[in-house]
Design brief:
By secondary structure, the protein is an alpha/beta fold. It has 18 helices and twelve strands. The protein binds iron/sulfur cluster (SF4) (2 copies). The site of one iron/sulfur cluster has 14 residues, from helix 14, helix 15 and helix 17.
Length: 494
Amino acid sequence: MSVGQSAHSAMGTPDDPSASFVESGPPRLPLDVDGTGASDARVAPAQTLGARPRQLPIAPRAEPSRRHLPLAEATRPVDLRWQPIYAVWETTLRCDLACRHCGSRAGRSRPDELTTAEALDLVAQMADLGVREVTVIGGEAYLREDWTEIIRAIRARGMTCTMTTGGRGLDEARVAAAKEAGLQSVSVSVDGLEATHDMLRGVSGSYRSAMDAIANLRAARIPVACNTQIGRQSLHEIEALFDRLVAAGIHSWQIQLTVAMGRAADEPALLLEPWQVLEVMPMVARCHEKAQAAKVRIWPGNNIGYFGPYESLLRGGLPRGHMASCGAGRSTLGIEANGDLKGCPSLPTADYVAGNIRDASLRDIWERGAAMRFTRDRTVEDLWGYCRDCYYADTCRAGCSWTSHVLFGRPGNNPFCHHRALELLREGKRERLVKVAPASGAPFDHGLFEIVVEGWPADEMARAQAVAESGQGFITSPDHPPPLGPGQGTQMGA
Ligand code: SF4
Ligand code: SF4
């Protein structure tokens, strides 16, 4: 399962209400969003993206949670069949990075984040409900003063505790504190080689600090994984990046596609086109071969797939040997820092918050919250578009609900699918996305896109067929990324 596109941070980020974008001039990033006074450390965006949107709300003030959402009167047998095994917990929205693709638009704390007492009570409720592993994220989890207290409580209740981080402030002292508290594994986000990573993360030096964090964790003997998003700017350097991560000593690598949520929805130039899964999947398979030799485990995120020729290579070790349908609200729980509960941490807040822990128990919200139930009740009849008539529809149920919903405002049709792209290639067609409505600017928001089905240009189709047959190379080149459709360049924030 993926942990969404939350930014991760460190170094102390005050809730600086003055953080804002300059209105004109050369590309510059938010003023002193981390409170270090280091506004000159920000990096210029890559040429392919152009200037960052002037009014992009890098750290908007999150709205307070919606309270007292209704719960169903009764628990049904199907609700008892599922139990949250894995919880991903945004313990704070506070962050010291400024990631252009951050799904939660992290930066400032939410106005109503859980107190320590409330957080510790939630830990107990998770343990009682059967959660086995909790991953703390942010923002940046270690920017909460009580972060080690939370880790210690999770461990004391017998649950595995892991963390996902951008690593900017994961210095020796913080690592030592995490080790002492019992943190068992840390996944550091690294999204490309140095220049690309720094551009995407919005802070010069963030690649170096991420690699330093990996070294600090290894020195403290905390197992280290990495997670990487694959987007338009990073696609061609992912294999070289993987080599560096292997050399740095990671035990696992989770990859996912950059998804059109939050700030990424403001800049579609960050996103791959759906047909580019034809070059992503063979590239992932090539990395898999290297990973086996290096004894590094690859975890393809739930938006990497599905059911193409590499499915058993990448997911053969799963119980069914292939992708199953979305686990939101069945095996997975997502928690926002204010106690809002969702079936998956990546899902949009507006449509998927099932209740708030201040209003009802975790068990009640898990069993009776309407938005927690959608995958328990989903059938093929809920799918639409290409997915509705797909051979794999009943097993796959359109793959990742998050990826589909943030594109179209509802789940059930996922164009980022290898099987689908291959079938379309056989017909000489491909799909691309056109943005038709902006995101609102709130954490975990999304815009709206439409699918355009088009014929392949002859030269690109020949390359696509060659990549599909050989598993080698790319269709695009780093110097010639796919052109953006009308309105698809850098977008102004809402
Ligand atoms: S087309 Fe849709 S239902 Fe079929 S495999 Fe792809 S994502 Fe799953
Ligand atoms: S929406 Fe479903 S498939 Fe997608 S990341 Fe969340 S749990 Fe996984």
